[in-house]
Amino acid sequence: MITMKDVYKTYDNGVTALNGINVEIDQGEFVYIVGPSGAGKSSFIKLMYREIKPTKGTLYLNNKDVSQIKEKDVPLLRRNIGVIFQDFRLLPKLSVYENVAFALEVIEESPRNIRKRVMDVLDLVGLKNKARFFPRELSGGEQQRVSIARAIVNRPKIVIADEPTGNLDPETSWEIMRVFEQINNSGTTIIMATHSKEIVNTIKKRVIAIEDGLIVRDEHRGDYGYES
Amino acid sequence: MRARTINRHFREGIKNIFRNGWMTVASVGAVTMTLILVGAFLGLILNLNHMAKNIEEDVVIKAFIDLTAEEDQVLTLGKEIEKISGVESVIFSSKDEELESLIQSMGEGGEVWQLYEQDNPLNHAYIVKAEDPHNTEQIAQKIVNLKGVDSITYGQDVAQNLFKFTDYARTIGIILVAGLVLTAIFLISNTIKLTIMARSREIGIMKLVGATNSFIRGPFFVEGLLLGVLGSIIPIVAVLSLYKVIENSIVGMTSIGFVELLPFNPFAWQLALVILVVGAGIGIWGSLMSVRKFLKV
Q1: Is the ipTM beyond the 0.90 threshold?
Q2: pTM check: above 0.80
Q3: Where in the cell is it found (chain B) (predicted)?
Q4: Chain B residue with the nearest C-alpha to that of A160
Q5: Which of A114, A147, B71, B73 is most open to solvent, judged by the fewest CB atoms within 10 Å of its CB?
């Protein structure tokens, strides 16, 4: 499903973030990306939703070379990928319902479908009764659940999360992880960059460790492997 | 694009206008000020141009015919003048007509000239008009060399100075209007850029969930259009009413014959339409220019 071959990324300022990455990730996998700060985790993730392009090498997503996709086709790629961030990135002036519906409006889904799918997905993340609330009226964990709902409402095959529990307390983090597991159980691939030793060591999944822009470890049901 | 989407763009665009509060006021203010200046200058320049044309068209060559010329010589001369390229019309004016117009132009002092009615010392003349008034001098030079022409007059210096003045006025006018429009676009795109910067996060999220660039531009397009149109309302009202006032006050001043404005209908309405189109155009352009930067996510 995702194949990276000899992927290099050097930014305009001369900093090399990725130094020859080779990896394959199958449909339905749950993968943790771990490593020290500045190791290249974020660049690895940004490549997948084409926020950045590799300097060298190829990146296939569903048999399509992402680095060769034309600028105008990038939106189509992103509709098949849900992205979640540490800072939630919700629109403060929109309600919970509107924030999630937004992802369907921009792809010109019919109002009837929007209504049904938004309510379904809010039910899944446990926020059906808070649909009319605004982000500022929610806790951090709830806000992150809204952003997860927005990421999966398009029914993407891949969900990419960049430190999704980074801003949350441990208890809330476990709630969020339960939602991720639920999504993964329905067949969606999850790629999650994290610094949480507890999560990685408790919910055992594939672990890819990146250091200095290289994959230094790739283990099925691996450990975090660093001091947190 | 689906009707539902267009509907959404309009809804969002209008919502943004209200949501941006003072920014909207500032943008509309910038458009208003600029369009008032553009409207005033455009009105002034087009009218100056119109007047200059009127004056230019009044420039004629008067070729006085030799007193000794026979009647058939006079006729031949007329035909020869007609043959000169660039000549629009040739009108014969007999010496009696010349005396009559002289007496008329002298007013009360003209009575003295009535003594000459029995023994008119003036020449017959041809009044020649050039197709392009700028060629008057060249044509005059050709006429003066023709046989049977005693002398010519075409207000040499006046004509030359007038042409110079009208040419300058046009050039300066065009430069001024172009400069103003460019300034307006700069002002508007900057103001709108501020409102868009405040919404860069929103644009980023739209891109992240797979919105196409044209979908993102939609509401901004509508917003720019509305800002431009709103900004053109006051200038249109101002230009229309001011033009009416000026036109009314000039009608009474018949003594300065060449000061003749372009008629209110249709000129003022055309000017209003130009202001509206320019306003909408710079609004849309400014808005799209500003959003462009944020689309490269």
Answers
A1: no
A2: no
A3: Cell membrane
A4: B208
A5: B71
